[in-house]
Amino acid sequence: MAAADNTVAGRLALITGASGGIGRACAIELWGEGASLALTYNRNKAAVDELVQLLTKDGSHAAQKISTHQVDMASADGLTSMMANVEEQHGRTPDILIPNAGYGKRIPMINDIPLDEFDYTLTVNLRSAFILAKGCIPGMTERKWGRIVFISSISGQGGGINGCHYAASKAGMTGMMKNLARKHAADGITVNDVAPAMIGDTGMIPDAKYVAGTPGDVKNIPVGRLGTPQEVANVVMMLCKTGYMTGQSILLSGGLQ
Ligand SMILES: NC(=O)c1ccc[n+]([C@@H]2O[C@H](COP(=O)([O-])OP(=O)(O)OC[C@H]3O[C@@H](n4cnc5c(N)ncnc54)[C@H](OP(=O)(O)O)[C@@H]3O)[C@@H](O)[C@H]2O)c1
């Protein structure tokens, strides 16, 4: 019988969208726990540079390494060469994968959603997560240890304020998660997703004022406030440290359904 191994220190975590609110919080959390990091950004290099500066400024993490990578989630070739570059820089493929980078133009009603917007949203959110998981699972299988935590959304469960294009891309992640969880559990790989709603301090929901008077109004959230990126990172870390939990989609929504 395999012993429980929930050690995060010394592992390599690949976090996409580390230039955004949730990715940044996950990076800080995993770094604090002793993981090395491969962080991606698309347009906002300054945010990821500032994050690296923050993490390395006291020089007390000598055993850990950070690399940063520009990549567009819509580019399959870009994702493949990013993963090769991660392996080159760290001498290994990731043990922990957090497919977090995401996009969702707010178009609530199906009649207003152009076909190319549907295709693009699925490409950025879902196809990229498939490419990333496909690239990381062989190394995880070889080492008999892996953690994959997709950042999905309440929309994948039918809630949220966006349209069906975004919902489909996130529900697809949950379906893929459940399949991968079953197929790879025996190899020490857990696969779960965190489904947030209304997380502030992010590009998606910059602050409470942004949603006042809309279907996303804070008044409609049962706990009476937006969630924080740190609260998403808390759940991500719990999943990284809990190898007995796999195949789960965890709604993190302040009580919204
Ligand atoms: N905030 C919420 O309430 C909420 C709720 C449910 C789900 N989520 C999910 O949480 C994840 C993180 O979002 P966030 O809330 O932290 O928002 P955010 O601050 O806007 O971060 C989005 C991140 O995704 C990256 N990204 C977007 N399009 C990309 C592309 N084509 N290629 C590569 N990277 C791309 C951005 O990179 P650059 O900025 O460098 O371009 C940024 O790092 C997303 O998947 C989102 O769907 C958020």
UniProtKB/TrEMBL annotation:
MF term (GO), any: quinone binding
PROSITE patterns: ADH_SHORT
A Pfam family that the UniProt record links to this protein: adh_short
Keyword annotations of the record: NADP, Oxidoreductase
Residues annotated as signal peptide: none
Parts forming coiled coils: none
GO biological process: fatty acid biosynthetic process
Family: Belongs to the short-chain dehydrogenases/reductases (SDR) family.
PANTHER family per record: 3-KETOACYL-ACYL CARRIER PROTEIN REDUCTASE-RELATED, SHORT-CHAIN DEHYDROGENASES/REDUCTASES FAMILY MEMBER
Name of protein: Uncharacterized protein
